[in-house]
Every structure is written in structure tokens, then in C-alpha cells.
Amino acid sequence: MRLTPDEWIFWQQGFIKLNATIVFTWALMAVLVIGAALITRNLATGHQRSRWQNLLEIVVTAIVSQIEDVGLKEPRRYLGFLGTLFLFVAASALATVVPGFEPPTASLSTTAALALCVLVAVPLFGISGQGLLTYLKSYLEPTPIMLPFNLISEISRTLALAVRLFGNMMSGAMIIAILLSITPFVFPIVMTLLGLLTGMVQAYIFTILAAVYIAAATSGPKRSQPKPPPTAAA
Predict the structure, then answer these.
(1) CA separation for the pair 222, 193 (Å, rounded)
(2) Among the listed residues 203, 111, 119, the one whose alpha carbon sits nearest the alpha carbon of residue 166
(3) With bands split at pLDDT 50, 70 and 90, how would you rate the model's confidence at 161?
(4) Contact 120, 178 (CB under 8 A)
(5) What is the full DSSP assignment across 61-92?
(6) Residue-wise DSSP of 138-204
(7) Which of 176, 196, 173, 198 lies closest to 185, judged by CA?
(8) N or C, which end of the chain is more exposed by having fewer CB within 10 Å?
(9) Cα-trace Rg, the chain
(10) Ranges of each domain in the chain
């Protein structure tokens, strides 16, 4: 039994390996890109719209609404990054119904790469939203002695993102594989459906956490509101 798709090797030349994680990751990205191109090639602005466009608008509207609820003032600015994260993780879970497919998110290398994307995106959005100096000063708040602790927090939450997603996705895949080998066919189908639900929940949690980190990085220091002038007594 394979613990992760990293152990499934398609081709190897010396230390260079082409494993299932790489193959399924690129295949999934190709499906997402081609699907997006096909869905968006004939977008309509009138009342007559295709079912695919209606589905696309529902998904985009839901993601934008969730981003706005987190506290980001311009949700469409972050739609490309956060929406891509959600769709990739969700598609990895949904594609497990395809025979022979192993989700790339069941590999620690994939989840670590996704977490590193968040680690890089957070300061980039923070700097673009607040400016370089203001963002760097946030690491010294409330006192300069907090600098090492804030840096450790950035690294630890990145590790937590990677390990959390990897643990949940790998455990689900392993449970389904074990049940397929020792139980009748009906029960693993139920567990597969439960795994799909778990995968969607993990995609939502991962995206929301990334949005929360970006919101914390882009929110500037709170400014005290000026007091209104006293009214003259009659």
C-alpha cells in the first residue's frame, strides 16, 4: 500500500524522478486551465446564459462573498489567488472518484508548496496594501522584542497549513484503500462520498485561513477617530 503518491514512480533517471504527485498535479492543472478556457470563451452579458456560465458565476460569487466576509475590502483583488487555491484543493478531492487517480494533496510536497504560496503571497499583499515600511513595522508591534516571535509565527502557521491539509487528505485516501481491501464494495463507496465532503471542507478551511492571514497583513494600524468639536451651549 502506498502512503503517498510520491511512492508511485513512473520514470526515473538517476536522482530525477517522475512520480504520481508530479503527473497528477500537472494533469489537474491542465484540466482546470482547459476547463476555465472552455467555460469563459463565450460569456454572455444578457439574460440568455449557458448552464456552465451560471455555474461559474455561482462559484465566483460565493468565493468573493467569503473573501469579503473575512474582512478584505477589495475581494476581487484577491480572487485570482484565493480562488485558485480553493479550486485546486477541491478538484484534488473531487477527482478521487476517477479510477487510478491519487490526489496530489495527499503528498506533503504538494501541501508544502501550497503553504509556501501563502507564505509568499501574504507579505506581497501586505506590502502592496500598506507599503513596505508600514508592513515591516508590524513585526515590531506591540514592542520590538516581539520581532522573533512574529517571525516564528509566520513559519509555524505555514507548517501548520501544510501538515493539516496533508494529514487530512492522506488519511482519507488510506482509509478508503484499507476498506476496499477488507470490506464489501458498498461500504467503501459511502466512505468515498464522506472523503469528498471532507476534501471540500479542507479546501474551504485552507482558503479561509489564507484569506485571514492576508487580511491581517493588509489591515493597517488602527487610527484614532478625531473627536467632534464641542457644541456651543445655547
Answers:
(1) 45
(2) 111
(3) confident
(4) no
(5) HHHHHHHHHHT-S-GGGSHHHHHHHHHHHHHH
(6) GGG-S-GGGHHHHHHHHHHHHHHHHHHHHHHHHHHHHHHHHHHHHS-SHHHHHHHHHHHHHHHHHHH
(7) 176
(8) C
(9) 22
(10) 5-40+52-218
